[in-house]
Amino acid sequence: MNFIQKKGGLNQMRRFPPVPFAGNPFYQLMPSLNQPHSPVYPKSAASFEPSYSQHHSCMCITKAYLDLNNLMRTLWEQHVAWTRMLIISIAAGLSDEELVTKRLLRNAVDMANVMKSFYGDAIASTFEALFRDHFIFAAQLVKAAKAGDNRAAAEAEKNWYENANEIAAFLQRVNPYWSEEAFRAKLHEHLALTKTEAVNRLTGNFAVDIATFDKVERQALEMADAFTMGIVRQFPNYFICE
User: Fold this and answer.
1) What is the C-alpha to C-alpha distance for residues 219 and 223, in angstroms, rounded to an integer?
2) What is d(CA 220, CA 50) in angstroms, rounded to the nearest whole number?
3) Do the domain assignments include residue 141?
């Protein structure tokens, strides 16, 4: 089935192909679209229906959806790009480490501002704090590894994974379509890939380091898409097809 969205005047229609969600590992762990659900909508959204087709096999792609998805992808790209730049700065002992760290931590603020638009100040503040810690523990791990301090590295890695578990649980509480199981698995994968990237950068195995970052980037975009998908499902009135 193709979904039809109005484009321009009333007599102009644009036909969009179905959007294949089933191939995304997050989709398989989310509550099924074919099962009854009770998402938490804002009061103003009570009379709106989700912008999915009646067959649940495709979705109308609106400008609002694309804008949100592009923003999420940009933020997750920046998330992993500035993490990589900090790894390089620490590994090489560059004088820009403090400035790069400051820019990396701004990513937590930028992501929290998106959350604020949908969930308010309190939830956005918690989100920011959790992701700030995510970055801090990563930096501590890289610094300890460079110094050869195995105890400090192990402690930083333990805190890093506990933080990832906290993030996954928090996301599930905020949005029933952000599966704790799925995000915990993806965040753990993100940490493992980032550690591999850092270890190979520190040991001068640059080919593996670069190849690993390609995997980091692809995986980050999957998380960005999952963030978008969860918000669209929870707040369909913001993305309604005209």
Assistant:
1) 7
2) 26
3) yes
Residue type present at position 123: I
- What is the distance of C-alpha 197 from the center of its chain? 19
- Answer yes or no: is 149 within a domain: yes
User: Within a domain: residue 33?
Assistant: no
- Look at the chain and report how many structural domains it folds into: 1
Give 43: exposed, middle or buried? Use CB within 10 Å, 0-12, 13-18, 19+: exposed
In whole angstroms, how large is the CA radius of gyration of the chain?
20
Distance from C-alpha of 133 to C-alpha of 189, rounded to nearest angstrom: 17
pLDDT (tens digit per residue) in 157-200: 999 999 999 999 999 999 999 999 999 999 999 999 999 999 99
CA gap 50, 62 in Å, rounded? 12
Q: Is the dihedral of CA 200, 205, 206, 207 positive or negative?
A: negative
For 191, the domain range is: 75-220
Asked whether residue 1 is domain-assigned, the answer is no
Do strands 3-6 and 13-16 pair parallel, antiparallel, or not at all (unpaired)? antiparallel
pLDDT digits (tens, 9 = 90+) for 182-194: 999 999 999 999 9
Indicate the SS3 state at residue 120: coil
The answer to whether residues 57 and 201 touch, using CB atoms and an 8 Å cutoff, is no
Over pLDDT 70: what percentage of the chain? 75
The dihedral built from the CA positions of residue 241, 61, 169 and 38, taken in this order, carries a sign that is positive
Helical H segments across the chain, by residue range: 25-29, 63-92, 97-119, 121-147, 150-174, 180-202, 206-234
Q: What is the pLDDT of residues 78-112, one digit of tens each?
A: 999 999 999 999 999 999 999 999 999 999 999 99
